[in-house]
């Protein structure tokens, strides 16, 4: 039975960015300070500990890429080009709401792009260790978090004490547990949540406190429970379930999700930083050293900038067990070498350990490749539904 | 007496369109026509032609599957199936134990790996780039003052010169400068085929090498291409009688399956 009741009953139906902007605008208007972020490695708990709100910045529109290419090479990741274009064309309202920006040395393209925008607002770049299992990594990242803390304290003329950070660690854990309960509805067979509904919630969950998130999720959980009671689910009956992994996807690259649905599939798991990845973070509580606890936790984020990135391989198996996909799609943004190369081993694991069909899609933010992506996705889903060679010859 | 079950498959490609008609799962007729600028009409024309050759009316047709890049443009199809699944199916019809399919068409090329039962294990496509396609050969043939068939004849018995450019546009200027430096046209023709074969061969290595591969699509009619692929992949390359209709044949058999399932 198809879904009858939307998750949100507000004036922002179909416009999750406006809903997010509205939330952040209200925050800022009530005097809450705002810190802009580009990446999951930014320690959200520091920002919350100083009473500020983290603001995720624009990075997902094709519109700003032409402007960016006046300076940046065209053969660069569209996420980096778009982010930069948003800044130079002054079209990112979230950047306008931010009083400072925290960035990290994740990939080469990003760190060089950050150099180009470093003089617009107070910006702090954190030097991210990329061999997370080396004994020095935690020590170094702990120091980098402390440096970011001093940057925030100086920029905002405030003090952040360890007790406040500890409190925010507990909050993150509580928030992530709530989100896990939410994602359980996508794990159901058939799924009672769509990818766009997950995105609607994720966008707000990223910037909300645990209390705000709980207030938002309670009616949503009620809606989801009644969907289950009524036997409602998302997508066509028997639709192949798809896990999407790889680079962050949103805005114009969300075309991949739409194409999966048009090809007859249902997106049930979102294994990227724009999806579920950050919500699986668990930070040790009551260690007496909250910043080291933060450093240890954040270094477990399975980004392809890490080497070896063993946790991504563990995580994808956990996701496959939990969300029971029929196929895995790895989305690689153009020129993202680390995810692109890693895709080979993800493919091997998905095929050999889980015996699932796998497809790598390389794309950018334009819609020039929708035809070729559609063909590949349809062929992938035909593998699942069995339109392959069979029957009498 | 068995009631006749007429099914059809239509493969609407960028350069040519093919239709295959089956009577109770046995091929009775096929047709091939140029796609031209109107893929929808080409699909209708090809189907019309194949049906009339077989002596059937449209009404006799139980089920039609459309495939190829124009598959979603036609209204006569009961269902669309991707050219990946159709080529896989068609290949197993003409060679029931084949596990590797190479298709080089007008504007794309694909390599499909099958398990011993014929289920698709892996596929890879080259599109968005002319090199490694029929269009590339057409372009290069023009430079040498011939057509694709002539290019094949020229290239068959010559020692290939190395064409290093992987871009169709740059390969074109490379061929022109090779001609200018008085390299024999036959060696250039052989080099052109080898450069396409090398691209296909890296796609083959990506999905998995087998001892034999079925080579289909319009370009499979080129003897020089077959030779170059054998050299580059070290596999035995099998070209079916009508390499162009493999996609339509697969579509017709998928069509047959759906018709049987529905009846």
Summarize the topology.
The complex is a heterodimer of chains A (393) and B (263).
Chain A: H1 16-29, E1 34-37, H2 44-49, E2 53-56, H3 65-68, H4 78-88, H5 93-97, E3 100-104, H6 108-117, E4 123-126, H7 135-155, H8 162-187, H9 195-205, H10 210-230, E5 241-246, H11 255-262, E6 266-271, H12 290-298, H13 310-323, E7 327-333, H14 337-354, E8 358-363, H15 370-385
Parallel strand pairs in A: 1-2, 1-3, 3-4, 5-6, 5-7, 7-8
Chain B: E1 6-12, E2 16-23, E3 26-34, H1 39-54, E4 61-67, E5 79-80, H2 83-94, E6 100-104, E7 109-114, E8 120-126, H3 134-143, H4 148-156, H5 168-180, H6 185-207, E9 212-216, H7 223-233, E10 236-238, H8 246-262
Parallel strand pairs in B: 1-4, 4-5, 6-9, 9-10
Antiparallel strand pairs in B: 1-2, 2-3, 6-7, 7-8
Helix pairs in contact in B: 2-8, 3-5, 3-6, 4-6, 4-7, 6-7
Mean pLDDT, all residues of chain A: 96
Helix content of chain A: 40-55%
Helix count of chain A equals 15
Largest interface: A-B, 16 and 27 residues
The secondary structure category of chain B is alpha/beta
In order across it, which strands form the biggest sheet of chain B?
3-2-1-4-5
Strand arrangement within the widest β-sheet of chain A reads: 2-1-3-4
Ranges of chain A where pLDDT stays below 50 over 5 or more residues in a row are: 388-393
Q: What is the share of helical residues of chain B?
A: 40-55%
Please count the helical segments of chain B. 8
Distance between the termini of chain A: 37 Å
Task: Report strand % of chain A.
Answer: 5-15%
Which descriptors apply to this entry?
heterodimer, A: 393 residues, alpha/beta, 4-stranded parallel beta sheet, 15 helices, disordered C terminus, B: alpha/beta, 5-stranded mixed beta sheet, 8 helices, 10 strands, globular
